[in-house]
């Protein structure tokens, strides 16, 4: 793939991906909706608001002009999930490949982000880039592997070559739904693991939540047409383990606060960066109920986000009737 690469969304992850795309010498057009952020990035070659302390490549140019970004050879979409449809509606449709890098499910429609992208840009090949990827590590050049999923083999191979770098290794997949469901569901489960940490419930409980959470992810994924091996790969289990293990995760950190007894509404009101699991949880629960899939951990996270008492919610989760593991 020759030519510029567009990145839409200049938060931590969009900026880190811009840095990856610039590694191979591509001109990178990084779109932000906030004019002050655009000016600051271009003046300082740093995104101090969302990815502080990382000197950005001179190949990256921030912009507020979506038409200029749309002329690039491919566009990586990295807005918060619930904002994606509105931003894509403003993006000129050139049939350019679109790469969904956000993790979530659209409220109201229950659509995955790739489905939203296809709705808005039916002529574009749509891909999904997902995996265990803390932005600050990727931006610093630490080794990272991702799943790059897409049905169009040619577009996917071209994009993989364009973004692969010595520290950044994309693995190809044709399972778009599986790659997306892993990333969306793990954010909800990371909140649950953070609650365990904040409430001091111990490492056994955290490991049990990861294992039972993976069972939930798998049940939901299979019901939606995902492949089991994708859910067990980087975009599913890999990302689940990462996000459930570290306060570097915004979702895990949100859970820690809830587990310590802080009100979820206050924690969310005081955030500047996005914790997608808080938006995904109620949508995921609705989608699971519609599909007839039981997701007790997701339901528990929803109760906690609605202000439920931690001890009561955990007690109810543990008091469910005994059942077979599989
Ligand atoms: N940070 C990570 O390590 C990471 C890694 C992989 C995937 N992701 C996913 O990428 C997506 C973006 O995350 P992030 O970490 O870059 O978020 P962030 O919180 O760092 O930044 C969010 C960005 O979106 C902008 N924004 C907010 N509302 C908007 C709107 N309505 N329209 C357009 N722009 C808007 C903000 O101004 C900001 O620039 C999320 O879905 C997240 O789950 C993040
Ligand atoms: O900080 P989080 O919880 O949004 O997680 C970031 C990435 O999704 C990790 O892969």
TrEMBL record:
EC assignment: 1.1.1.94
Boundaries of every Glycerol-3-phosphate dehydrogenase NAD-dependent C-terminal domain copy: 175-308
GO CC, any one term: cytosol
Active site: 186 (proton acceptor)
Gene3D superfamilies hit by this protein: N-(1-d-carboxylethyl)-l-norvaline Dehydrogenase, domain 2, NAD(P)-binding Rossmann-like Domain
SUPFAM superfamilies for the chain: 6-phosphogluconate dehydrogenase C-terminal domain-like, NAD(P)-binding Rossmann-fold domains
Annotated Glycerol-3-phosphate dehydrogenase NAD-dependent N-terminal domain residues: 5-152
One example of a Gene Ontology biological process annotation: carbohydrate metabolic process
Pathway per the UniProt entry: Membrane lipid metabolism; glycerophospholipid metabolism
Main location class: cytoplasm
Enzyme class: oxidoreductase
Family matches, as InterPro entries: 6-PGluconate_DH-like_C_sf (IPR008927), 6PGD_dom2 (IPR013328), G3P_DH_NAD-dep (IPR006168), G3P_DH_NAD-dep_C (IPR006109), G3P_DH_NAD-dep_N (IPR011128), NAD(P)-bd_dom_sf (IPR036291)
One function term, GO molecular function aspect: glycerol-3-phosphate dehydrogenase (NADP+) activity
Annotated function: Catalyzes the reduction of the glycolytic intermediate dihydroxyacetone phosphate (DHAP) to sn-glycerol 3-phosphate (G3P), the key precursor for phospholipid synthesis.
Family: Belongs to the NAD-dependent glycerol-3-phosphate dehydrogenase family.
Protein name: Glycerol-3-phosphate dehydrogenase [NAD(P)+]
Lineage: Bacteria, Pseudomonadati, Pseudomonadota, Alphaproteobacteria, Sphingomonadales
Underlying gene: gpsA
């Amino acid at each position: 793939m020759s030519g510029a690469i567009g990145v839409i969304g200049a938060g931590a992850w969009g900026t880190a991906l811009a840095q990856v795309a610039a590694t191979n010498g591509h001109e990178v057009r990084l779109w932000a909706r906030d004019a002050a952020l655009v000016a600051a990035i271009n003046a300082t070659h740093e995104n101090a608001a969302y990815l502080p302390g990382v000197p950005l490549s001179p190949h990256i140019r921030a912009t507020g002009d979506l038409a200029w970004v749309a002329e690039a050879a491919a566009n990586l979409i990295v807005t918060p999930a619930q904002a994606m449809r509105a931003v894509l509606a403003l993006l000129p449709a050139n049939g350019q490949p679109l790469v969904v890098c956000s993790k979530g499910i659209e409220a109201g429609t229950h659509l995955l982000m790739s489905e939203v992208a296809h709705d808005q840009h039916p002529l574009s090949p749509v891909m999904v880039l997902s995996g265990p990827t803390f932005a600050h590590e990727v931006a610093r050049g630490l080794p990272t592997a991702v799943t790059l999923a897409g049905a169009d083999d040619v577009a996917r191979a071209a994009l993989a070559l364009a973004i692969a770098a010595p520290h950044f290794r994309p693995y190809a997949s044709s399972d778009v739904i599986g790659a997306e469901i892993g990333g969306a569901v793990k954010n909800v489960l990371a909140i649950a693991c953070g609650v365990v940490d904040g409430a001091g419930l111990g490492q056994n409980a955290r490991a049990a939540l990861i294992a039972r959470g993976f069972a939930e992810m798998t049940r939901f994924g299979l019901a939606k047409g995902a492949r089991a091996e994708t859910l067990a790969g980087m975009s599913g289990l890999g990302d689940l383990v990462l996000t459930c293990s570290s306060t570097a995760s915004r979702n895990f950190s949100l859970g820690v606060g809830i587990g310590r007894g802080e009100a979820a509404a206050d924690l969310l009101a005081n955030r500047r960066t996005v914790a997608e699991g808080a938006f995904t949880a109620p949508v995921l629960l609705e989608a699971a109920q519609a599909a007839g899939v039981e997701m007790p951990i997701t339901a528990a996270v929803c109760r906690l986000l609605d202000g439920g008492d931690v001890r009561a919610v955990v007690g109810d989760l543990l008091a469910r009737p005994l059942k077979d593991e599989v």
